[in-house]
Design a protein that fits this description.
The structure is a single chain. 40% of the residues are buried. The longest helix is centred in the first third of the chain and has 22 residues. The protein has 218 residues and is α/β, with parallel strands linked by helices. The protein is 38% helix and 19% strand. Helix 7 links the parallel strand 6 and strand 7. A seven-stranded parallel beta sheet has the order 3-2-4-1-5-6-7, with helices on both faces. Bound molecules: magnesium ion and zinc ion.
Length: 218
């Protein structure tokens, strides 16, 4: 008898649900982004800043993932965008079943962009397809130039990388070019963005990219 590792069965089920989510969202013309990054990388701040550029906040919705608290859901709602919170109560990643359940709690009529802010972690979120159309790694310059080399699978499976807090680079002795090249050495296909929400740098380019991606998706 061949032993099937438990993990592969769990992952298979996850991938099935993720596929169903992707079809469901496609039918509603909703483009989904899965945001993965360490705690404190600036995922929520990036969303808050990005949402300032949307005239119609109703075109966006957010699923927040955290171990505890709904602080981030509250922040997103203050930014004028509907959000629901998944509190994993210990788990360090989101899975597709959790996302699927949360979809019913959102008013998806008129929504074009669904952002999933994953639990702050660069390890297991990389393994879980959530039904997204694009996977975004969010990494702050303060995390160091070699982060992509230390967590290659997250970068390998991503479509885009948003480097945040670039205004801090000079204070933390990080060379942004080296960080960028390290990410590209793991995955040359990555779309890269250099941003700072403090100085409002790079947010426009990210917005243009999202709109283009949606255009191609439709
Ligand atoms: Mg957050
Ligand atoms: Zn985990």
């Amino acid at each position: 008898m061949t032993k099937i590792p438990l993990k592969s069965r769990v992952m298979q089920k996850n991938d099935e649900i993720a596929g169903a989510i992707r079809e469901k969202l496609k039918a509603q013309r909703i483009f989904c982004l899965n945001m993965i990054g360490s705690p404190g990388s600036g995922k929520t701040s990036l969303l808050e800043t990005l949402f300032k550029l949307f005239d119609r906040k109703g075109t966006c919705a957010v699923i927040e993932g955290d171990v505890k608290t709904d602080n981030d859901r509250q922040r997103i709602e203050k930014a004028g965008v509907q959000a629901v919170q998944i509190e994993t109560d210990g788990a360090c990643h989101l899975n597709a079943a959790q996302v699927d359940k949360m979809l019913t709690g959102l008013a998806l009529d008129g929504v074009k962009y669904l952002f999933i802010e994953n639990v702050g972690n660069l390890i297991c979120p990389a393994a879980y397809d959530l039904g997204e159309n694009k996977r975004m790694i969010v990494i702050s310059v303060a995390e160091g130039e070699d982060k992509p080399l230390k967590y290659p699978s997250a970068f390998m499976r991503a479509d885009m990388v948003v480097i945040t807090k670039i205004d801090l680079a000079e204070y933390v002795d990080v060379d942004i070019e080296t960080l960028k090249n390290n990410a590209l050495s793991i995955n040359p296909k990555l779309d890269l963005f250099l941003t700072s929400v403090k100085t409002n740098t790079g947010i426009d380019s990210l917005m243009i990219f999202l709109k283009d991606s949606y255009g191609r998706y439709e």
